Structure formats: C-alpha cells, structure tokens
Amino acid sequence: MKIRRATVEDADGIALARVRGWQHGYRGIMPQVFLDNLATEASPRLRNRLENPAPNTENYVAETADGVIVGWANVGPYRTIEDPAQLDPGEGGELYALYLHTEYWGRGIAAELLDVGLTYLRQIQLLPYRLWVLRDNERARRFYEKHGFTFDKTEASFSMPDGTELPEVRYTRA
To answer: Of 8, 16, 85, 112, which residue has the fewest beta carbons closer than 10 angstroms?
Structure first.
C-alpha cells in the first residue's frame, strides 16, 4: 500500500472510496435511501478542489500496488462553524475527510492516512488538530480517540440535502 499526494487523475477513485466509506460507515445514521443513491463518480467540485486546492490544504490517497485508490484524506486550515467555506488558520488545522473502502478497514491504512495528513499540518504549523464527526458514528469516534483526539464539548449539525440535521461533535488533539 502506498500513501501519496492526490492528483486530479485520482478524482474518480477518491469519489468511490468516499461513497463506499459513507455507505458502510453511516449505515443506520443517515437515511439508507440517501446512501444507496450516492454518485460514485467524481463531481466537478471535487475535481476543481484537486486541480485548484485552497491555500495550505492537501489531499492524500492510499493506493494499492495495482493502482487502485482505496482511501482518501483531506486536511487544511480549520473551517469556521458559522461558515465552513471560511478558513480560520488561527484556530489550527482540520482533518476535513478520511474515508476508506470498507474491505480495507482494520488494516492500519486509515491510521497511515491520518498520520500523513497531521504531519503536513504540523509542518505548516496548523495546530491544534481538529475534526468533526457525526455524534452517532461510534466506530469513527473510537478511532479518533485511539489516535489521541478528545471530544472538546463543541457541537454543531450536519445538514442533509433533505433538510435533516444530524448532530456532529468536534474532536481536538494538541
């Protein structure tokens, strides 16, 4: 398994890894009809984010020896709660996304992606590290706690396309 910086050519592989991660990781948390209908091809927005990344952001992929993208991590400056499109580097760095094909769960690949992303944030001095996780995603919460993150008592909501609000909690690591 190779962990490397993502390129725009990885967009479809990233999209598929994200969708498979959502479909299994969010089962029972998000509406199943929503999960079943997620598009597995890369959106123009994702392609643009890979071609024209925001300042101090980075994308990493986990790639098999056969060239298949099985995981993705995206990091950068912390986004404000009020407007996630607004970056606030004074608040540290953020893990925006970490997804893996489920058949690769439990092999240490997510930990490698996390480590590479946090190393990048440390190199550009974006500390502390923060991330948002759905409150009911116990598996993900255990993973982040195992890697030194703690729930910092900050809560928000993730808005689904149908208007449903899902509670999120913020984790921080110094």
So the answer is: 85
* Residue entry with tokens 């952001």: 57
The pLDDT of residue 85 is above 80: no
**pLDDT recorded at residue 141:** 98
* Distance in angstroms (rounded) separating the CA atoms of residues 87 and 70: 28
Residue 173, token pair as written in the block:
């690591």
| 110-132: pLDDT as tens digits | 999 999 999 999 999 999 999 99
Residue 109's pLDDT is 98
Sorted by where each begins, the domain ranges of the chain are 2-130
| Dihedral in degrees, nearest 10, Cα atoms 99, 16, 4, 56 | -70
> What does the longest C-alpha to C-alpha distance in the chain come to?
42
ω before 44 within 30° of 0 (cis)? no
What pLDDT, in 10s, does the model give residues 28-53? 999 999 999 998 888 888 999 999 99
Runs of H (alpha helix) within 28-147:
32-36, 44-51, 109-123, 138-146
Number of CB atoms found within 10 A of residue 9's CB: 10
- The closest of 118, 139, 142 to 130, measured between CA atoms, is 118
What CATH class has 2-130?
Answer: alpha beta
Long-range contacts made by residues 153-161, C-beta under 8 angstroms, separation at least 24?
154/81, 156/81, 156/132, 158/132, 158/134, 160/30, 160/31, 160/34, 161/34
